[in-house]
Amino acid sequence: IENEMGDLSGEITHQQSFLKQLRQLVLQDAIEGKLTTNWRDKHPEFISGDNHASKLLEKIKAEKERLIKEGKIKKDKPLAPITDAEKPFDLPEGWVWSKLGDVILHLPRNGYSPKEVARETSIKSLKLGATTYGKFNPREFKYIADEIPEDSVFWLEPEDILIQRSNSLDYVGVSAIYTGKSKEFIYPDLMMKIKIMRPLSVNLIYNFLSSPLIRDYFRSRAKGSQQTMPKINQGVVINAFLPIPPIDEQSAIVERVDKLMSMIDELEKQVSERKDQAEMLMQSVLREAFEKE
Question: Interhelix angle for 202-209 vs 247-292, to 10°?
Fold first, then answer.
C-alpha cells in the first residue's frame, strides 16, 4: 500500500508541475499573439489603419509630451530603439515592439520601508509577501509609526503595478496589480511601482510581465552582493521589451487568458483535493494496520 501511495503522490506532484508549466505556456502564447490568431482572422479591420498599435503608441507619446509641458510629469531620457536583431520573435500583423519605459507614466519608483511597530496605527505598509505570488494579498502588511503625507508618492492607487525588485531568483521581478483602496497602503523598498499609460490595458501588461519572456529577462539581469536576494534596478525594468497589440485585441487577449487561467485554477483545485484525499486514505490505512496489531 505504501508503494501504491508513493506512486499516487508522485503522479499528483507531476500533475501540479504540469499545470504550472501550462500557466507559463498560456502567458507566452499570449505575448506572442498565438492566443488570438483566430480573432485577428475574424477582425482584420481592428488591426490595421488607425487601429494599428503604432497609432496607439503615437497617442501615448503625445499624451506624455502634454503632461511634461504642463509640468505634471518629468521628462525622461529617451530609451534606445529596439533593433531588428534584438527582437526575440516576429510579431503578428498590427502589433509593434516597445519598451516598458515608453508606456508608463513615469520612471519606476522604489518604495519606503520604515520600522514595524507592535501597535495598530493609521499607516499600513505592505510586506514583500503581499505580491510574491503574482496576486495582491492585502493581509500581508505591517503597521508603522511614520507620518506619510497625503500627497506622498508611496501611497498606492488601484491598478498600480508592483514589481518585486529584490527577492530570491525564483521571485525577483514578479508583478502584481494593486487591487486595494486608494491610499490604504504604502509599499516597501523591495518593490517598484509603475503606472500604465491609458488606454493600454493594465491587465494585459500584467499578463505580459508575468510571461516567461519578461520573467526570464528580469532573472537574467538580477544582480547583487547577496546571492539569495538578487536585485533588478530601474534601468532593467524600463528596458524590458514589450509587444503592444491593437487596443481591441488587448481586450480579446485578456479575456482569453482569464478563461484559460480559470480552467487551470479548477484543475489545480481538483489535484489539490486528490492530494488531500490520498493523505487521508494513507492515515486511514495506517490506523487500520496498527489497530489490527
Answer: 50
CA neighbours closer than 13 Å in the CB half-sphere of residue 237: 28
Name the nearest CA neighbour of 107 among 76, 150, 82, 130: 76
Q: Which residues contact 151 (CB under 8 A, 6 or more apart)?
A: none
**Which of 76, 81, 163 is CA-nearest to residue 126?**
163
Q: Are 204 and 258 in contact (CB under 8 A)?
A: no
Q: What is the pLDDT of residues 275-286, one digit of tens each?
A: 776 667 667 766
Distance between CA atoms of residues 233 and 129, nearest Å: 19
Are the CB atoms for 191 and 205 separated by under 8 Å? no
Supply 114's cell numbers: 520604515
As a whole number of angstroms, the distance between CA 104 and CA 61 comes to: 10
Contact 165, 188 (CB under 8 A): no
CA torsion 144-186-173-99 (nearest 10°) is -150
pLDDT in tens, 165-224: 999 999 999 999 999 999 999 999 999 999 999 999 999 999 999 999 999 999 999 987
Specify the pTM. Answer: 0.87
Q: What's the CA gap between 139 and 19, in Å, rounded?
A: 26
